[in-house]
Write a structure and sequence with these properties.
Chain lengths: 77, 576
């Protein structure tokens, strides 16, 4: 079976200048109820890995440096 | 796939609202007990109140309301199909729960004399207490978990209840959604507090995770209780809520009502007397939505600037704080524009309606050693405060249950079978990805099960669900995260089958829109003034049965009985 890849604009974006994941911070990844965020180990930055967002905002509210921004998912905007 | 084995005395499954309370109260009842709180996300920010809550919707506070009055109101709002003992047990304990939360540091709105600032939203009584600073709720609960030394295990998804040779609940099986490890936890009592079945219907937006409920609440608790042989009650009494269109969060007429806001049609006219969510209210809402005066709006544009800014602070910092961002994107300013509303997808949730795993006034299910609390337990209209209260009961009673019960042997074939079932999607190299199967299943739920319910459509749904059952055997997961979604689709499938089965069984209409059957449009008290339970039989079949409504402890008078059937505003007839 073959699988197609599909491009998706994600609601959660991370300002890599502000993100301190390279220092070991995983707050946004820890608090997400849907477990959709991850740390890119090569870059040492957080990013949204799965487009499964409830736009609930713990990631943004709990980020210690204000690096995370939650938009309303495009389909609902 | 590694196997991780753990052991505890009381296992609480789900760390949202009822779960933390259950864990703390079990520990308080007997500090020597080992109490484990299992959470598929992280208890710091999990469940329906991950961002807090803007108020109590069912506070029974002396001087403002009585437990008797509240029990009667919920009996009426639920068209009489209520085990009053369970509602009364909640109502009697409501104030004690509030005082506990108050002592823990939850801030409620109080008036200048220090009394709780109660608001009237229900049709008859006064039970709403605002919490403008309710965003700190999860932090407060987390502090109590640490203080009580509850063992917290995050990111483990429960999939089946473990049972011992005597048929008692003896633990749980599941997996770690980060590592993919198979997890077996042995326990002497299990409390399920897994929230609503919020991913049953598909939101009108088509976005799988744009649900009313926190989508982590995929109906896991309903599926686990069903497979454990517990009885579920009144599943045909769906949850359907009036929401902000597309955003799919509550418009919060409860919050805005006392400030002068209300639900209106496109002419800006009020059409319902009371904004409290009930099947009858949803029926009027649905009719207005479909009519020439539709759609429906939340109207605030007539209010004073000061009032509106106050409302904005409450609604945009609590419960669903991204709401302000949604309005901004659409250019909706409460001062100038009404907020367009729509109805939610269907779900199971006793917190708002009455569809849940059956429990008595001690939070016991029909399986010994298995308890349920919160949105997934059958006490109707229980909301957040009811979740805390029944969590309290469950924790206390589970601790007492253990004192009198010895651990029995466990047949390990159930563990081997579950391990194989969980591992299967990871072992396949090709097949159907969980998101595609979930989309199709939930789209069919919308097509065939949403009210108005039609017999032949629901029979077609059952045919489609049989095909989905075959597809479930072809699910493929590339990693532990996808495995979580794959197993959740199984839970959604179980809930969809239960929804169809329960809805077909009750051949009448009841609870307004929640169970409106177009081919049985009348309420039929002669045959259906009864609870309907659903369970899995010994040979694995799904079965519905009638269970009589227990004699009321608080009888209703005739005037009260029909109060919720008169929600539509009656216009005086024009004089000809």
């Amino acid at each position: 079976m073959t699988y197609a890849t599909q491009r998706t604009t994600v609601p959660v974006t991370v300002d890599e200048e502000k993100c301190i994941a390279q220092k070991g911070c995983t707050v946004c990844v820890d608090v997400c109820p849907l477990d959709v965020l991850a740390i890119d180990l090569a870059k040492g930055k957080a990013y949204m890995q799965y487009d499964e967002c409830w736009y609930c905002m713990p990631c943004e509210k709990d980020c210690p440096t204000g690096a995370v921004h939650v938009d309303i998912p495009y389909l609902l905007r | 796939m590694n196997t991780i084995e753990m052991e505890t005395d009381v296992l609480v499954v789900g760390g949202g609202t009822a779960g933390p309370m259950a864990a703390v109260k079990a520990k308080e009842a007997n500090p020597k007990l080992r109490v484990m709180l299992l959470e598929k996300a992280n208890v710091k920010r999990s469940g329906a109140i991950s961002m807090g809550m803007d108020g109590l919707n069912n506070a029974v506070i002396p001087g403002h309301a009585t437990p008797e009055q509240y029990t009667k109101e919920i009996t009426i709002a639920n068209d009489g199909i209520v085990n009053q003992k369970t509602v009364y047990a909640y109502a009697n304990h409501s104030y004690k729960t509030i005082e506990q939360l108050d002592r823990w540091g939850v801030k409620f709105e109080k008036d200048e004399t220090g009394d709780y600032a109660m608001r009237k939203v229900h049709h008859l009584g006064t039970y709403v207490l605002p919490m403008p600073e309710g965003h700190h709720m999860k932090k407060i609960l987390y502090r109590q978990l640490k203080k009580a030394r509850v063992e917290v295990v995050n990111r483990v998804v429960g999939t089946r209840i473990l049972k011992d040779a005597e048929g008692k609940a003896a633990g749980l099986m599941g997996f770690d959604c980060r590592t993919g490890d198979f997890v077996v936890i042995r326990a002497r009592a299990v409390i399920l507090s897994c929230g609503a079945a919020g991913r049953l219907g598909l939101p009108a937006s088509g976005y799988l995770f744009g649900t009313y409920e926190n989508p982590t609440n995929a109906g896991d608790g309903y599926a686990m209780a069903y497979h454990a042989g517990a009885e579920l009650a009144n599943l045909e009494c769906y949850q359907i809520n009036p929401l902000i269109k597309d955003y799919n969060g509550p418009a919060c007429a409860y919050v805005t009502g006392p400030f002068g806001g209300y639900t209106a049609n496109s002419h800006g006219e009020r059409f319902i007397e009371c904004d409290y969510w009930s099947g009858q209210m949803m029926w009027e809402f649905y009719n207005e939505l479909q009519s020439g005066k539709g759609p429906v709006f939340l109207k605030l544009d007539h209010l004073a600037e000061e009032t509106i800014s106050n409302i904005e602070v409450i609604l945009h910092t609590n419960e669903r704080p991204s709401r302000g961002r949604f309005h901004e994107g659409r250019g909706t300013d409460y001062r100038r524009k009404m907020v367009e509303m729509h109805i939610s997808e269907i779900g199971f949730c006793s917190g708002h309606s009455a569809s849940g795993v059956w429990v008595n006034e001690k939070a016991e299910t029909t399986v010994p050693g298995l308890y349920a609390a919160g949105d997934m337990a059958s006490v109707p209209h229980n909301y957040m405060l009811g979740a805390f209260t029944y969590g309290w009961f469950a924790g206390q009673n589970a601790a007492a249950f253990i004192a009198g019960s010895a651990a029995a042997a466990i047949d390990t074939t159930q563990i081997d079978a579950e391990r194989a079932r969980i591992a299967a999607p990871l072992g396949r190299s090709d097949g159907i990805p969980p998101n595609q199967l979930e989309y199709k299943l939930r789209r069919m739920v919308n097509d065939y099960l949403q009210p108005p319910k039609v017999t032949s459509k629901m029979l077609l749904a059952q045919e489609r669900f049989d095909e989905v059952a075959e597809d479930l055997q072809r699910l493929v997961a590339a990693n532990p995260h996808e495995l979580m979604r794959a197993l959740e689709v199984g839970h959604i499938y179980d809930c969809a089958r239960m929804a169809a089965h329960a809805s077909l069984f009750r051949t009448e209409s009841r609870w307004g829109l929640y169970h409106y059957r177009a081919d049985f449009p009348e309420r039929n008290d002669a045959e259906w003034f009864t609870h309907c339970h659903l369970r899995k039989t010994a040979d694995g079949a799904m079965e519905s049965i009638k269970r009589p409504v227990e004699p009321y402890i608080l009888p209703l008078d005739d005037e009260e009985k029909t109060a919720y059937q008169r929600l539509r505003i009656v216009k005086e007839a024009a004089i000809a």
